[in-house]
Amino acid sequence: MIEIHNIHKSFGGKKVLDGVSGVFETGKTNLLLGASGTGKSVLLKCIVGLIKPDIGSVTFDGTYYTNNKLDIRQEIRRKIGMLFQGSALFDSMNVEENVEFPLKMLTNMSKSERMDRVNFCLSRVGLENANHKMPSEISGGMKKRVGIARAIAPNCTYLFCDEPNSGLDPQTAITIDELIKEITEEYNITTIIVTHDMNSVIEIGDKIMFLYKGKKLWEGNNVEIMDTDIKELNDFIFANRLMRDAKKVEDERAEEEDRVEEERKGETR
Amino acid sequence: MLANFGKYLLFIQSLLARGEAPKIIFNRTIDEAILIGINSILIVAIVSTFIGAVTCVQISYNLTNALIPRSTIGFMVREMTLLELAPTITSIVLAGKVGSNIAGGLGTMKITEQVDALEVMGINSASYLVLPKIMAAVMVFPMLVILAMFLSIGGGFVAGALSGEITPQEYISGIRGDFVPYNILFALIKSVVFAFLISSISSYQGYKTDGGALEVGEASTKAVTNSVIAVLVADFVLAQLLL
Ligand SMILES: Nc1ncnc2c1ncn2[C@@H]1O[C@H](COP(=O)(O)OP(=O)(O)O)[C@@H](O)[C@H]1O
Ligand SMILES: [Mg+2]
Fold it and tell me: Which GO molecular function annotations are given, in alphabetical order (chain B) (predicted)?
């Protein structure tokens, strides 16, 4: 479980995060939802410690992180896996070396143990037979898979994904989302996913935090999100015509049910 | 300007704090050294050979006084090569070649979040990426400078012989006359200082890149221009201090 408390961050007088608090639960895919430029990536970077918040604190399973001693922070960092927006694979290394890298740097595993783990992680994300390809030779979807394999290789306890399905076709996007959800549940880790994609919300939104202009406006799950009175959130969700149509159909069905119910009551009376 | 210099110093300091295991840094240094050496050897060879040849031809063109022995040409080519041309011209060539490579590579890693990926793993990215580059440059530059010395003097020899300005015997007696071993040491000290300046300035420029591909290009350009200026200033300072 990751808790954040009252996170503020400004860049050169421009307020990007304005007091965000919340809890991200273990074994669930926690979504940070919001339009582009609302500070989702900055919040994620504040949580993993790539950016220092001006005010506020982050706690990993009860251990205070943000301004704690370096060795405690390092200890927690070693349990963090992160999938970056552009995958951020090391482009001087091939697929296998990319996944092996954190094992080499962070563990005392022998070469053969490392290779076993690498091959296990690569097959877990559905990537066999790509071990010796360079990042420049593989597709965007495959890069994300390698990125996930690299993130989970050292047995991470916390997984962070910044827009894991941006730039992918809808079908690949969904398989990547599902892969992240499966891994989260299988290993019971705490996963935070930054997204602005409604497909992800519907597919894997166990717990959603909606950010708007640096503030948390709403939180809930992917069922509750369809039925709120927060204008900014509704504008965001129903910006898409398909979503509006789906909502209309749903509302009509609900009305119809109500009407049938009324009639039934009338008859029995 | 001054603020930038301060940030540069802080950057250098950050390389030494919280470093990775010496074995890892050592292995990375060897890799980088091989890369720098292989990528630069051809250009250094070409430039130094021609510089030696041109120096020889031009000195003999200027040296028309019959009272001065022709072997002086060989002597002057040697002195200019050892003191100035080999270390400084080689370093300026390397500022273009190695400097832009370092800044471009680090800049790209920065904007594609590869640096962040290292940091998230708890690795001090500055020390992991930059320290080996600096140590490799400090190791390899003197070797390249020694190579440049030989080739430059050899270039002068060939040019002199081909143009008929100076016979091989005269040239050889010229380059053997009045030899001061300290000059070699001075050249090597210079090359080490230049190597440090070029690799650290270029790393600094690459490492502070923010934005996109355009900024990476800018970082490369700045790396080269700032390195060249630093090399020339240091050249002057070292000459004042050590000669
Ligand atoms: N390092 C930085 N320096 C200055 N401004 C930044 C920095 N990082 C992000 N910002 C600004 O913060 C705002 C939110 O950015 P970001 O978190 O990337 O948005 P998103 O929600 O799309 O991920 C943007 O306006 C961006 O310009
Ligand atoms: Mg973002």
Answer: phospholipid transporter activity
